[in-house]
Specification:
about 525 residues, Topoisomerase II, domain 5, Gyrase A, domain 2, Topoisomerase, domain 3, 18 helices, about 45% helix, elongated
């Protein structure tokens, strides 16, 4: 018979409020926002860890994308395969990520917004830089948690060596909040990290001596530094991003040729928008519009009519097309599973604190392993001193347990030492093998002394972290792609109300995502991995 006491009453208003808050926090923490330590959302972290676990590494063959997606869903991410594949595709697109973490093979989409081929047709493996995200993961460097069905464990965060949150940025829409962190140049960010380690009290001005501003994979220009400084100071800001172009003479006509477009702008939409503006006579003086882009790069040609002033046409292009857009920065990330808008210094400190913890835990792991090995080596060396008696004890013992007990009682070996002695091959009895054990003991003693000093001396620990960061910089550094030019006018003016650099006018017309401070809500939503 059913117990009526099991049924409880609740106000629907309170129940709705609690349920919605639980849902919102689940989306915020488990789906939409990156962790401030490794800059990854759960789905991206699970993709990278699964590919590492399955040995789909740079030195191995490419693997079908469908196989990787299936493994991610089966073990760690119980959601739709489309969302996982879209997330993996984004990790491989060089026009979305400043430093791609996945190497693609096949059609992985384009800057025109073309969708990738089906996962059964494409292949992928981890990029070399992705290996820096999982370095030392087997040395108890991070905490682990059960997966969704308690069948295995997954890392809560990756023990990365690179400041991924800043160099690759992140975008995500949660419930009531959104993150839009721009990518940066790796060499600049590492220089800023080193400066912050050397001077914990470093100011924003000190950091900006190293980090000029965002560095987008598609290049272009950032107009002015006021928005950059505001974003780094408060975690929120707006910057003006402009295309790069040059002029050519084609068949006796002047042509404006676009070489680079703003980050996250769909090239096909840009060309369509320009053609529409020309048709509506908003842009005058255009004789022909051609998209001559190929795999080598972007090339959009605006061929002008004769006797037309190119300066006027360029102003009109910037006013009525996506050749110049605003990029809204919201440096929102999870700190201890709580969403927080970070300043530049706080973002760097979050990475450095995580790195310090990872190196400390790695050192403790290596120290424990070295001491355990030293204990075994000392036992083997001691056994060699009494090897004839030990062999006699083993030969006369009726079984292994009796032999263990006799060895421990007579020579005070530990359980692990006895086990190593019983498993020792006869070749270890040679004089040469004894010398090797002596050398190994000396190496272990030196290593233990070094590791103990590392744990006891914060200055030594700092030097190790800096050295590893400098190694990453020398291996992966490249030149800035996005240039920064000065803003002619009052930098405190709103972007929409100000004339752009060199007199060029910016228009935010048709920008439908003003609340999120982005230029186009539809294109932005397509670029955001929400699952």
């Amino acid at each position: 018979m059913e117990d009526k006491n099991l049924i409880s009453s609740a106000l629907i208003e309170e129940e709705m409020k609690e349920s919605y808050v639980d849902y919102a926090m689940s989306v915020i923490v488990a789906r939409a926002l990156p962790d401030a330590r490794d800059g990854l959302k759960p789905v991206h972290r699970r993709i990278i860890y699964t590919m590492f676990e399955e040995h789909i590494t740079p030195d191995r063959k490419f693997r079908k994308s469908a196989a990787t997606v299936g493994n991610v869903i089966a073990h760690y991410h119980p959601h739709g395969d489309a969302s996982v594949y879209d997330a993996m595709v984004r990790l491989a697109q060089p026009f979305n990520l400043r430093y791609p973490l996945v190497w693609p093979q096949g059609n992985f989409g384009s800057v025109d917004g073309d969708p990738p081929a089906s996962m059964r047709y494409t292949e992928a493996k981890l990029a070399p830089m992705a290996m820096e995200l999982v370095r030392d993961i087997g040395k108890d460097t991070v905490d682990w948690s059960p997966n969704f069905d308690n069948s295995t464990q997954e890392p809560k965060v990756l023990p990365l060596v690179i400041p991924n949150l800043l160099i690759n940025g992140s975008e995500g829409i949660a419930v009531g909040m959104a993150a839009r962190i721009p990518p940066h140049n790796l060499a600049e960010v590492i220089d800023a990290c080193v400066a912050a380690l050397d001077d914990p009290e470093i100011t924003l001005e000190g950091l900006m001596e190293h980090i000029q501003g965002p560095d987008f994979p598609t290049g272009g220009f950032i107009v002015g530094t006021h928005g950059i400084r505001e974003a780094y100071k408060t975690g929120r800001g707006r910057i003006l991003v402009r295309s790069l172009w040059h002029r050519e003479e084609i068949s006796g006509r002047t042509a404006v040729v676009i070489d680079e477009i703003p980050y996250m702008v769909n090239k096909a939409n840009l060309v369509e928008r320009a053609a529409q503006a020309i048709k509506e006579k908003k842009i005058n003086g255009i004789h022909d519009l051609r998209d001559e882009s190929n795999r080598k790069g972007i090339r959009i040609v605006f061929e002008l009519k004769k006797k037309v002033d190119p300066d006027i046409v360029e102003k009109e292009l910037l006013t009525y097309t996506y050749l110049q857009v605003t990029y809204g920065i919201i440096m929102l990330a999870l700190v201890d599973n709580v969403p927080k808008v970070l300043t530049l210094k706080e973002a760097i400190e979050a990475f450095l604190q995580h790195r310090w913890q990872v190196v400390t835990r790695r050192t403790e792991y290596d120290l424990a392993k070295a001491k355990a090995r030293l204990h075994i080596v000392e036992g083997l060396l001691k056994a060699l001193l009494y090897i004839h008696d030990i062999i006699q004890v083993i030969k006369t013992s009726p079984n292994v347990e009796v032999a263990k007990n006799k060895l421990q009682d007579r020579w005070q070996f530990s359980d692990k030492q006895v086990q190593a002695i019983l498993e020792m091959r006869l070749q270890r009895l040679t004089h040469l093998e004894r010398n090797k054990l002596e050398e190994e003991k000396e190496d272990l003693l030196r290593n233990i002394a070094y590791l103990e000093d590392l744990l006891a001396n914060s200055e030594s620990m700092k030097r190790v972290i800096i050295t590893e960061l400098e190694e990453i910089k020398s291996r992966y550094k490249d030149e800035r792609r996005t240039r920064i030019i000065e803003f002619n006018g009052d930098p405190s003016d709103d972007l929409e109300d100000s004339e752009g650099a060199e007199g060029l006018v910016f228009s935010s017309e048709d920008s439908s995502a003003q609340e999120m401070e982005s230029y186009d809500s539809e294109e932005y939503s397509e670029a955001v991995e929400e699952d």
